[in-house]
Design brief:
The protein is 37% helix and 21% strand. It is an alpha/beta fold. It has three domains: 5-84, Orthogonal Bundle (Arc Repressor Mutant, subunit A), CATH 1.10.10; 92-160 and 270-298, D-Maltodextrin-Binding Protein, domain 2; 164-267, 3-Layer(aba) Sandwich (D-Maltodextrin-Binding Protein, domain 2). The chain has a five-stranded mixed sheet with strand order 4-3-5-12-6. The two termini are 43 Å apart. 28% of the residues are buried.
Length: 299
Amino acid sequence: MMVSSKVRYFYVIATEGSFSKAAQRLNISQSSLSDAIAKLENSLKVSLFLRTPKGTVLTKEGEIFFFHARNMIIESEKAATAFNSRNTQIAGELTLAAPYGFTSTNLFPKLIKFLELYSDLRPFRIICNDENLDLKTREADVSVRNYEPNDNSLQQTYLMTRIQNLYASPRYLERYGFPHKPEDLKYHNFISFNNPQRPMPYGETEWVLKVGRNENDPLRQPRLILNSVECLYQAAVEGVGIVAISNDSLLLKKGELLPILPQLHSPKHEMYFVYPRELKRIKVVKALEAFLVNSYKEG
């Protein structure tokens, strides 16, 4: 069963709660998206959305249609999977989703090596997104992310564990001194990661504002707050303050930052290769799963 583009557009708008965000995700203009929904509403003879100051919400009819639209998309993807599973070649297209920071500072070089192994894999789409996309409706085929408990419909294969440590530049340490014990951190500046638009799906990011403080103390005030891992790193290199960075980050290989109090670290975050179980016979999915598992075992 093929699902029309209008139904898919409707589904994305409903899940995003915004025409503008849906247009960005679908990579089409907002006017084209509005026209498509207007045509869909006209054909159904109902209004599907209400625009409010807080965003776009479903009407009662829209809620009913959303239930059916999601099932239509899921069944369509299952049908496509059944046909694709006959293909014995590592070929065709694949869409992978993974968090921004993890992709840019760790995962991406591995994905490029995998792409180089299979010339018939095209296109290989990589979506950087800190939200867990819906794999059942095929917003992405596969994902690298945190474990999802109580979801037996997903195959979740462990890849690696991430831990953040504290780092600072020689320039910063020359000016403010080297902290020798956790209590010394109260005399230092910190750079913090925060992105209110995209809450992190894989754990706490504010541990750095608590470390070295008593349990009942308020969070320390950071000198600088950023929502980009690359900018976070660059600010630390420039001597703005102490930063928490995953110890597997490729940025650290530049040698521009020094470790601070290595006994202090963030909570552990386990990363998994995740995909719907009905894709387990798809050759390209199994190939990527095996490749990533072996890559992380080798370090």
